[in-house]
Amino acid sequence: MNFKIMRWFLIFIGMQILTLSIIGGYSLYLETDEENGIFAMNKTLISVKNSQNKSSKAFFTLEDINGLNDYSFTFTSVSPAETANGTSNIIGTNSAYINFNNLKFSSGSFFDKNADLSGEKVAIIDEKLAWDEFGSIKAVGNTLEISGVKFKVIGVISENNSIVGLISGSGLPNAFIPVKALFELDKTAKINSLQIQNDDTTLSGQNLNRALHVLNIAGKAPGDYYISDLNIKKVVIGQKPRIIVFFIGLACIFTILITFIDKLKGILFFIKNKVKTDYIINILKDHKKIIILQLLELLLFSAIIILILGIIKFDIYIPPESLPKELTDFNFYLNLFKKSIEEFNLNKGYLPSLTEIKLNSILSLSNRLFFTGLFIGFPILFINLKYCRVDSNNFNKEFLIICIIFIISTGLSSSIVFISGMTQKLHISDLAVLFSFNYILLIKNLYKKGKEKVKDNEKNMPYYPDGTGSV
């Protein structure tokens, strides 16, 4: 393969990875709210660490739940059970579950508070279970047998065909029933997950204190639970594409500054050399057109730097527990490593809720896009653009190819996100920074080519994009 074709192919690959990392990253951020109910990510999740030990006192009881009436909350207890045509996940919960989780119905609705309090034998099933049991998604009004007990189907949940739904699916169909009805079916069922609506939408840590207070009311030991403020999770997911754009913007600014300094040196050397034989007033008068054009170019560079800074700046959030008081505090890093090992061992008995499974799927996709974009896409694009051979004769052609690659990459990335079934919103300013990065590197290469062509006897004069070095 021709080296030039290979270079353009690598530029396309780098551009494709970066556009997908930015567009996909923001789509995953929007997906965090899309996958949740009316409270979106404004909630705190409390989950039992070791769900395999059924004798553990960490599980919540109905008495514990009844003591939380001052809070807006929901909970889940998952128990596999036999239906007429196979095994299903039976999820016991309360009527508030619909407020914390986004369930889209193809027919029917969720059960109300009366059914919740009375433990009525009603069920909400997903489309997979509807097909398995009734051969149709039009199952509302039918009777579903769970472990020999008859439940009336009052709602059918639409299948989540997005990439998040596909990744987070367990393979087993799901049925939601009032928790009291589940406890009648399965005497060993336990409530292992609790969701509480947040009062605080900031990152102050107040929601964690609120969760600890809830555990205190229930008489539980905080060490037996994973506690996650989903506000913080959402911020962490949302800042990843911004970090990528931040580094792209820094590369733009750094490149502009190098060119800015070179241009400024050219002007100063030119004036310094002329001062040897003439007064500075005469120099400025005789060469004012050249000098003014050069100064305007410097002002343009300054304006571009300010504009890019305005786009890429943001307040990054780093969890306090991940920051050492001193960079040389080796005990901190050792304890952090020990904690990760302990959590890995605890995870062996951990049973995540559906909410956590979906959130972990989003986090996993977000991490993959972030690291791929920052450590693969960005270096590939930067290296291949840096060594583009550009001069005044082929600049327009090279720039046109870059524009075409950018448009194709953006279109493909948008199509991938659309096909993945995720919510999409293009951040034009961030994509503009990526486009500017390509253009600025081409301009830098053009100036570099011009410098190389300056003759030894013209070193005291500014160089120009035409590569002549003449004034």
Automatic annotation (TrEMBL):
Keywords: Membrane, Transmembrane, Transmembrane helix. The chain crosses the membrane at residues 7-29, 243-261, 290-312, 369-387, 399-420, 426-447. It comes from Ruminiclostridium cellobioparum subsp. termitidis CT1112. Residues 15-182 form the MacB-like periplasmic core domain. This is MacB-like periplasmic core domain-containing protein. It holds the Pfam family MacB_PCD. InterPro entries: MacB_PCD.
